[in-house]
């Protein structure tokens, strides 16, 4: 029985069920293979970030092996330097917990008194347990353990980056020779170019966001301003929710350390920075490079976060961009790519020809 006969026997409902079952199997496979796939994907995207530097050195007649080595040394120096400074700040937070606990007890006592004045009975033990800094520190340690797990795969990531950088220049020619179709190499070049442009623009915006946040927190006098600036830089790669998550710890710390007025100032700082960079500058620099609607960006964040956790959220936009480009080059599925993209620009009404 040929494929057309099978499709005819299945009917429309049967084909829909078959597609749904296939999607469920694929998603389950992605979740099951997370520990293997995520290091490879991280390596691919990190290689794309560093590839322009490698290409620049090769244009300057630097041998490929030396250029790859210098690129890795520079990237590792940045990562290790940030890790050392952030690790020092995290250790200091642990030392400062007793001081924050005393301040929290004062704040919680005042809050309980105010709530009781308006007739709302509150259990002091339950309220203090809710705002217990030890509990917050436990959550922070859980997050640090997750980061440590990701770093445990760093050797595999670095090894993959080395091979990707060595092979990057020859991939288009290999695709054309393997499949005998120039469109495959063109598709690869389009994916590489668009993701590089997106990551470059997003990195510049995230760096500017983290710098402004860090300077603002330092002026206000918030403890560990560099740590919160680094957090704002990293989480800004997560669309929509990243900037909100990054604002919560420094605002709460400012409330405990300096008081409600300064906490309000810090909250306004985060809102102002994210409005300027997120709503004005980012759409101008990144909007056209992404080629995805706002709803699709949010749904991709939810989907990839559900499949692969925080790393999936970080990679949600690039992964969805790859899917969209692949769909654009598949005749039967091009309509899905159109639905994933932004609304088409409105055409001006043509002038009626004079009779």
Textual characterization of the structure:
The protein has 355 residues and is an all-alpha fold. It has two domains: 32-180, no CATH class; 182-340. 84% of the residues lie in helices and 0% in strands. It is built from 14 helices and no strands. Helix 8 (182-220) runs antiparallel to helix 11 (260-290), helix 8 runs antiparallel to helix 13 (316-328) and helix 13 (316-328) runs antiparallel to helix 14 (334-340). The longest helix is centred in the N-terminal third of the chain and has 54 residues, at 64-117. The protein starts with a helix and ends in a 15-residue tail after the last helix. The relative contact order is 0.08. The model has no long low-confidence stretch (mean pLDDT 76).
Overall average pLDDT: 76
Low-confidence blocks of residues = none
Approximately how much beta-strand content do the residues carry?
A: under 5%
Shape: globular
Helix content: over 70%
Helix and strand element order: HHHHHHHHHHHHHH
| Overall radius of gyration | 25 Å
Count of individual beta strands:
0
Helical region count?
Answer: 14
Total number of distinct structural domains: 2
Determine the N-to-C terminus distance. Answer: 61 Å
Main beta-sheet strand count, sense and barrel state: none
Helix and strand content put the structural class at mainly alpha
Features of this protein?
355 residues; mainly alpha; 2 domains; globular
Give a short synopsis of this structure:
With 355 residues, this protein is mostly helical. The protein has helices spanning 3-32, 34-59, 64-117, 124-130, 133-152, 154-167, 171-179, 182-220, 225-235, 242-257, 260-290, 294-314, 316-328, 334-340. The protein has two domains: 32-180, no CATH class; 182-340.
